[in-house]
Amino acid sequence: MIYIVMGVSGSGKTTVGLKLADRLGLPFYDADDYHPRQSVEKMQQGIPLNDSDRAPWLEQLADLIPTWEVEGGAVLACSALKEEYRKVLQTVSDISWIYLDGSRDTILKRLQARHAHFMPSTMLESQLEALEKPAYGIHVDVSLSPEQIVQEVISKLEHMNPHSEFGVIGLGVMGKSLALNLASRGVRVAMYNRHVPGKEEGIAEQVIAENPSFTNIKGYDQLEEFVQSLEKPRKILLMIYAGALDAQLEALIPLLEPGDVVIDGGNSFYKDTARRTALLADNGLHFVGTGISGGEEGARKGPSIMPGGPRAGYEQVASYLEMIAAKDRQAQPCTTYIGPDGAGHFVKMVHNGIEYAEMQALAEAYSLLRNMLGIAPDEIAAIFKEWQQHGLGSYLLEITIDILHKKEGDELLLDKILDQAEQKGTGGWSAAVALEYGVPYDTLSAAVMARALSAMKAERVKAAERYQKQIPKVTIDRSSFVASLKQAYQVTRIINHEIGFNLMREVSEQLNWELNFSEIARIWTNGCIIRSELMEELVTIYQQEPRLLVAPTLVDKIRNAQQSFAAVVALGLQYGVPLPVLSSGLNYLLGYSTADSSANLIQAQRDYFGAHTYQRKDKPAGEYFHTEWK
């Protein structure tokens, strides 16, 4: 929506426009800023502008308004004194006119009190003569305070348009936070949560009661009433767990109309998303499978958003996604169209796989420092803080530092947490897809398996009693080891990302998705869980090189760290510290950088017992041979 605050000079257009823009979460523009220099000089001399003076100014504004609408809306302060001027500006249908009305004496006093403005108070008479009060729009008396004017405008806007712009189904932590994120930016939001007696009752109304400052949110616990409250074409975000999604769609589809858009913002398996996209398309509906990362804080303040599906559906909701997304260093929204079908959820699935490996790698570094070197948690936090400040900055490292400082009384809270990691399935999905496509997934699958092994707590306790570890007598230079561990962790992180992006590359090629890896890295630079300094580097690297481990800017860094990496893993394993991600990362690096591997023996073995044939180095590629080995 475009909101134009109009009136004669001195009516308070700029002050009210700025406050209204802030309240609606929209950018503010002042038409005075677009006057050509000649017009400004003319007004400074007390000479009124004529229609020919205003024509190019109005045309420039008219050209900008559609752009502002596409970008999500705006508030414009513009005198727009005559009806013919307003017709020039009416280049889009969604314009709300807000006329600041007031007596000549009230406005004159304001003009006389104003300083450093090019429009002198003597110009008021000419403006009042030219003014043609609109018979439409919202009229507000300027004798009110700016805050009162804005509140009255908001109230009248809601009365004029009782329908909500955007709907959210599912008010768990993420759904509620995203609904409030939208509402905080001026979007009229309708919220629905299922009604389960004794378990989930009045959830939407509870959200409203907890956030009384938001006058643009409405709550429902009847699905049909919720759908009818939305303006058309409807835009509905589903934030429910994947297991309940099909049942929710079955209830929702009969209530929708062709052209409506349904966004699945949960963690759905990408093949299910492709199936649902086809199902809704058969009903004339758009299904936009969208990965969202950032947790509760990200959802409320700005997550990373990965939408996929039909482009026509995406374009209907793009401005809303861009509005609520985090911003990168260039202030661009951390969201972009990923690709068709289930591409959005696929990329989110890989994001979670990288997340699993990053978390496990940090846990292993912590374990080495505490269990092998005996360093206290506060000191480990200091070591990690040095890493954070010198080249390894990331959100996960940042929160790990906070965790290592958190006490319950005099005791570290971490020590009271059961060492049994849970998972919601996305990591396992990505490992299964890697197997399906024959893509190496070493560190990411190792992280998934490490969580599965951690769940065997009772068995691990019993086994620990039987395998009482004999710690070897090896002298460790603490400072040297910590420096080597930093290098090992750094290279492991590069490998984690290489493996994740490699899976995306393979699937993209086979499914013709044309994923843009630089752009995916860019939207992961803020808002998401795996945001980091490394991700900032990847934006540039993926513009020039498709594979990280051969990127010139990284090769020397990895090569120089390789011996330290190997020493850390060897020493850790010797001391009995499990290192599934660090060790699999090292193995991946060694295997990837080995020109002649032992796979020739495997091929010979396969041919021996199964006549599977093999290729030869000394023969043209594509020729296959079989040998009678005995």
Automatic annotation (TrEMBL):
Domain 6-phosphogluconate dehydrogenase C-terminal residues, every copy: 344-630
GO BP annotations listed = D-gluconate metabolic process; pentose-phosphate shunt
Can the keyword Transferase be found in this entry's annotation? Answer: yes
Q: Which CDD domains has this protein been placed in?
A: GntK (cd02021)
The first-level EC class reads: oxidoreductase
Record field: catalytic activity: D-gluconate + ATP = 6-phospho-D-gluconate + ADP + H(+); 6-phospho-D-gluconate + NADP(+) = D-ribulose 5-phosphate + CO2 + NADPH
The protein's annotated pathway: Carbohydrate degradation; pentose phosphate pathway; D-ribulose 5-phosphate from D-glucose 6-phosphate (oxidative stage): step 3/3; Carbohydrate acid metabolism
Has the keyword Nucleotide-binding been applied to this entry? yes
What are the record keywords, sorted? ATP-binding, Gluconate utilization, Kinase, NADP, Nucleotide-binding, Oxidoreductase, Pentose shunt, Transferase
Which GO-annotated molecular functions does the record name?
A: ATP binding; gluconokinase activity; NADP binding; phosphogluconate dehydrogenase (decarboxylating) activity
The UniProt entry, under SMART domains, shows: 6PGD
Q: Which InterPro entries match?
A: 6-PGluconate_DH-like_C_sf, 6PGD_dom2, 6PGDH_C, 6PGDH_Gnd/GntZ, 6PGDH_NADP-bd, 6PGdom_BS, NAD(P)-bd_dom_sf, P-loop_NTPase
Instruction: Give the E.C. number(s).
Output: 1.1.1.44
Q: Which PROSITE patterns match?
A: 6PGD (PS00461)
Tell me which family the UniProt entry assigns to this protein: Belongs to the gluconokinase GntK/GntV family.
Q: What does this protein do?
A: Catalyzes the oxidative decarboxylation of 6-phosphogluconate to ribulose 5-phosphate and CO(2), with concomitant reduction of NADP to NADPH.
Quaternary structure and interacting proteins, as annotated: Homodimer.
Question: What PANTHER family does the record point to?
Answer: 6-PHOSPHOGLUCONATE DEHYDROGENASE
Q: What is this protein called?
A: 6-phosphogluconate dehydrogenase, decarboxylating
Q: What species is this protein from?
A: Pontibacter lucknowensis
The organism that produces this protein has a lineage beginning with: Bacteria, Pseudomonadati, Bacteroidota, Cytophagia, Cytophagales
